[in-house]
Amino acid sequence: MNKRVIIVLLTLFSTWVQAQNSITLEACRDSAVLQYPLTRQSFLLDQANELKLKNLNKNYLPSMALNGQASYQSDVTKVPIQNLPISGIEELDKDWYKVTLDVNQIIYDGGVTKYQKVVEESNLEIDKQNVEVELFKLKERINNLYFSVLLIKENKQVLQIHKETLEARLKDVQSAIDNGVLLASNGDVLKAEIITIEQAIDEAEISISATIQVLNHFTGLALSEQTTFIKPEVSITLEQPNINRPEYTLMSMQQQKLDASKDLTLSRNLPKFSAFGQAGYGRPGFDMLKNEFTDFYIVGARLNWNFYDWSKGRKEREILDLQNQIIDTQKETFTKNLNADLTNKQAEINKIVQKIARDRELITLREKITASASSQLENGTITSSDYLIELNAESKAKLDLQTHEIQLIKAKTDYLTATGNL
């Protein structure tokens, strides 16, 4: 999938989501991934790797070099009989000139190019997996923002009910104050508490707006306070979870690269064969006795074998083995920290499950109390404000249950995220 296709899909996806009155967590995550600049990096990495492989393939092509040389030397080779009157033999000139075209063709390089390609492919996979790790962190952030909106909205509803309860109580108190039964300070206390609740509601509204703006920043969507944030449905298995963290894949790829690097190190010390050729023009040529400009050429084969490198290659492989062990310790450390994190998240899930069970018990009791208050209101033994207080208490208990249910969904999502199964 090329960059142009991604842009088209992103545009269509954003248009579809913005046309909806509701949003899901998965849609937010998908849109954030499409919008994130690092997503486009994968295509750039592929292009860079393709160029690197093309360059490595050129190792098999002949290398050509044009060389020129002009020199003057203090002495030249002399023939012992050159002073005798023999024709065809003359003293060589001391100024020499030479232009050559040198061609070298690798026949066998010991596998160096082959393993260089393997290393480059490993680098590409590692770079791409680093992108996946960063995208994984982005998804975690989107999770937190999404659930923040849900929880703050629930908290706002609880505050609103609390405010309505206080306003109902203030109405009764104000009536008593007007009749001279209570002091005005009693009403002032309730008014002050109502103002405090209103401040908390304002803060909740600001927090909702700010969190949605951050979500829009990452997702490129046009969400608002009127958008319905749908609660995700999450199912998990706490026993023997399937761990699928991208960090493990990254560390395994790093070790695979180290193995390829060891093969590359070994290949550098293997025999290498090549063919060569040289064509030139100059004075003198290969016939040193000819004191004239002439053309010349040479072809042949060459063997190069660095059979002893003073243990340099062995030391490099030992270093690679140590780096492999370092990655093993990183894996162990990551696993240890992950297991501790999963244990904490399991405990959090169990704690919220118990809260929900208590919420349901409380709601049952509150419904009975409200029913009794309704009967008393009909009989005239309590005021409508007293009934409203009990009704709001029941509503608050139900909202608390909803809040804890959202917290449970978030806790389960966090657990799934920790295992790498978003």
Layout of secondary structure:
Layout: H1 3-18, E1 22-23, H2 25-35, H3 37-57, E2 63-72, E3 95-108, H4 112-178, H5 184-219, E4 228-229, H6 246-267, E5 272-283, E6 294-304, H7 312-379, H8 384-419
Parallel strand pairs: 1-4
Antiparallel strand pairs: 2-3, 3-5, 5-6
Strand order of the largest sheet: 2-3-5-6
Radius of gyration: 41 Å
Name the CATH superfamily assignment.
Outer membrane efflux proteins (OEP)
Strand fraction equals: 5-15%
Domains, number: 1
By DSSP, the count of extended strands is 6
- The average pLDDT score comes to 89
General shape: rod-shaped
At CATH level 3, the topology is Outer membrane efflux proteins (OEP)
> Which series of helices and strands comes N to C?
HEHHEEHHEHEEHH
Tell me about the biggest sheet?
Answer: 4 strands, antiparallel
CATH-defined architecture: Up-down Bundle
Q: Quickly name the level 1 CATH class.
A: Mainly Alpha
- What is the terminal separation in angstroms? 23 Å
What do these coordinates show?
The chain is of the alpha+beta class. The protein has a single domain (3-56, 105-270, 305-419), classed as Outer membrane efflux proteins (OEP). The protein is built from eight helices and six strands, in the order αβααββααβαββαα. The chain has helices at 3-18, 25-35, 37-57, 112-178, 184-219, 246-267, 312-379, 384-419; strands at residues 22-23, 63-72, 95-108, 228-229, 272-283, 294-304. The strands form two sheets. The chain has a four-stranded antiparallel beta sheet with strand order 2-3-5-6, with no helix packed on it. It has a two-stranded parallel ribbon with strand order 1-4. α4 packs antiparallel against α8 (384-419) and α6 packs antiparallel against α7. The chain starts with a helix and ends with a helix.
